[in-house]
Write a sequence for this structure.
């Protein structure tokens, strides 16, 4: 099971107003274990950055001046995520920006490259209705150390989100429940298939012989034979 934890930083909030991606990060997880394989790129958006956005991520236009355009990293990005399930916090935001960048390059949209998108914000809201469910709040709730997160950063946020996702899904026991159901069904099938035991009653001669053996044991044990009715082990 290959999953990609994904995050972006942008020049603003709305791609329809011309805002662009300035940072993209993707961290690989296979069978619920981080592999250490990741992709992380800063991108020159060829436009200014909203002051509010800069306060969130701290990335300046000057820092991005010598960085590649998204067109230079797009193929590398889609190759990295190809065939994987994407795990994104507030997925509509990132998916909207990524699809906008792909449209500008006349490339297929995101769902053509990945095997579906899971939104951890929606998951968290379902599990914790009425509570704060941003990344910082979830880290605090699940005891995940986010002290290094003084500003938003795509790569660090991916690593934190990976830990949050594992915590959010740790209670899903579908596999073990399925195994228990199959085990119970197998036990029931075996019980139904087991033949009824044949009960053979002792004859009067056998009962008399058994009584004589118990009497002998009682004599040898000075009255402490455990098989004599009415006696209990101490």
């Amino acid at each position: 099971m290959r999953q990609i934890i994904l995050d972006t930083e942008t020049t603003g909030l709305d791609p329809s107003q011309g805002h662009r991606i300035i940072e993209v990060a993707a961290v690989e997880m296979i069978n619920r274990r981080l592999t250490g394989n990741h992709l992380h790129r800063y991108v020159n958006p060829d436009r200014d950055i909203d002051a509010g956005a800069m306060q969130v991520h701290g990335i300046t236009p000057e820092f991005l001046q010598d960085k590649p355009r998204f067109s230079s990293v797009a193929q590398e990005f889609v190759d990295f995520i190809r065939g994987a399930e994407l795990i994104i916090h507030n997925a509509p935001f990132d998916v909207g920006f990524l699809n906008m960048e792909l449209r500008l390059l006349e490339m297929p949209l995101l769902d053509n490259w990945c095997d579906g998108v899971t939104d951890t914000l929606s998951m968290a809201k379902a599990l914790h209705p009425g509570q704060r469910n941003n990344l910082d709040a979830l880290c605090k709730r699940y005891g995940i150390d986010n002290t290094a997160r003084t500003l938003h950063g795509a790569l660090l946020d991916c690593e934190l989100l990976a830990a949050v996702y594992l915590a959010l899904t740790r209670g899903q026991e579908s596999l073990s429940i399925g195994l228990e159901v199959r085990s119970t069904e197998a036990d029931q099938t075996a019980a139904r298939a087991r033949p009824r035991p044949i009960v053979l009653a002792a004859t009067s001669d056998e009962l008399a012989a058994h009584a004589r053996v118990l009497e002998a044991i009682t004599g040898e044990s000075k009255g402490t034979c455990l098989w004599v009715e009415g006696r209990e082990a101490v």
